[in-house]
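Working notes for the structural subgroup meeting. M.R. asked for a predicted model of this chain before we commit to crystallization trials. I am recording the input and output together here so anyone reviewing the notebook later can reproduce the run.

Input as submitted:
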Amino acid sequence: MSNHRRRAHALYATVCLALFAAISPASALNENGAAGASEEHLVIFHFNDLHGRIERLSRMATVVREARRQYRHVYFFCAGDNFSGNPVVDQADPRGEPVLKLLNTLGIQAMVLGNHEFDYGQEVLLGFVGRSRFPVLCANIEAHGPGWESVKPLVGIQSAAGPLLTVLGLIQIEPDSGIPSAHPSRLEGLKFQDPIETAVAFRSRLPRKGVRIALSHLGYATDRQLAEALPELDLILGGHSHTVLDSGVSHNGVLIAQAGAHGDYLGRIDVVLEAGEVTRSEARLIPMDSVQPAPDILSMVKAFESNPVMERVVATLPRTLEGKTVLGNWICDMLCRQLNLDIAFHNAGGVRVNRLEGAVRLQDIYQMLPFENLVVRMELYPREIRGLIATDISKHGKVDLLMSGIRLRVARTAAGKIHAIELMGPDGTPLNENRRYAVGFNSYIASSYRFDHDDPGKSLEMTTAASVIAYLESGRPPIPSDPALRAEEEIVAAPADTVDARCEDPLETGPDPFAGSSAAGNLMADAMREQSGAQVALFPSRLLVPGIRIAAGTSIGRPQLRSMFKHAEKNAIQVARLSGGQLRAFLLQQARFRKGMDLQVSGMSCTFCRNLAGVIDRVECRVADGSRLDQQTALKVAFCAYDYDRFYKLKPLAVEPRDSAVTLESALLRYLSRHPRLDSDLSSPRMILRDCADGE
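Returned structure, recorded in token form:
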């Protein structure tokens, strides 16, 4: 058999639970797990980035146990980041203990360290490793001292009469710091090597026969680099980037798999070996929403969750707070008032929920702010604050920090090159360049953001979560000020990577994508409609980056688009046929769910009415010619394929075949090449929300 034949991977996608114990009939594997007497069949399950969602483990148990009853060789792996995201886990004693006990009970074969495994500190992590009944792996860490000898670079796993699995563990490192994406104080005394170079150095330790696996917490893009550097691997079981790979990706002869995050999916890979070498591997994801939990594991979860202290209500919000921008600014508002600060900043990645409403419990605060980061106070001049903002932009390509007590206006290229940073107070008055301001931020920012400042800073010995709880329990207004967007970014022209398209008016995403139509949202919806030939196109407001502005007359190309739209380079278009009544009901349903404008539209306009109780209860839709949307007329409607598959519960009249090669970004670039001058109609509102009296 040729080497090419041995390395070939047949990929297929199916997520139906009814098939989890068997392979599709189109597969060469039969229900007993072997295509022929000389072949061996392995079933490998994997998950990643659980972030404390322990209830999902009870569902995974159902699937894995059924497979173990049906197949001889079944393995179960974890690709890291079990912590941070659920106070039941994060506030346990010892911290993380619920995850450990559940994984020990489920009998996983190995896990790799993820960056969030360090969130509780090294002492807690080593306690976790010491009490685990499974190998914990990480090859690219250099650590000394008691306990670290239990963390292995790789492990060989072999069941009775089964083939050998060689598993190499790798953790990501940040290019600017050379350490994983964790609080630097949690990593003191540790050194980390480049994961790709480390993997290549282990080439000689990968046996010729059996299954060679990288258990990776590197992220999908780096997993592809790993496959290029080490084609001897058979599988890469990935994590960190939260990528949903429905049927895996074969790259350079290596099958790369990743199962999203939060236990939404359990990955399954069926591997066939002949004469001890892998000949075929097939990957798919099983959605956990469709699986019943195992009663005994669910009982353990319920026991962990029964903590009445966490149910204590600390405040009742007068209105819903949604989105990381709003929540992060709200957190900063409370820090300023509770800790007597002029200005506060918080990193968006440190806000771990997207929505709060009504009664807010302790559990909700700890879920939103799971990291035990202390607040640090520094006395900073405006020039030093600009250095902090510039560092933020260099790390993220945009303003990622959320804030209170300050407003920003940043002019930069799409690639992140800064032209100017204006600093203003909440009323728009420029900051005094000769004054020092009391600035607070969490200790992660203080340790990770390198910028020039004279004041070394002082820890206030209070965590961000504790500060927020103290403010909310003080009886002061739970929403002290409007936490709307406070950073405006203008994308200025750069000579490279542009297409010959210009907009007569400024092209803006708006401060709040859910408040109504924006020029950028209208543009994307127009491109989707033209590309698909649909009569109506709907683009999710959540995929707009708030606060981005491209000046009138600026050339527009791929870099500018990526500054305005999230994930446009990988999301495809799905066209479905709906009746006018179905479309109207869907739009109303989405607006009610979001309590705002959930979608940007092309080919029609909609006016939504919100009654005196604050409920969006009516919508009037008009099609392109100005006539009312007919309830019976069938329309071709273009959707973002990801949202159509994952979020929308539609029963369309028909669904058209999808061209996954055409992404939202490629459709928009094509649209711009056909329309070299974008007119001012893009700024006209198409989705309008009005407050209406009942019966109006």
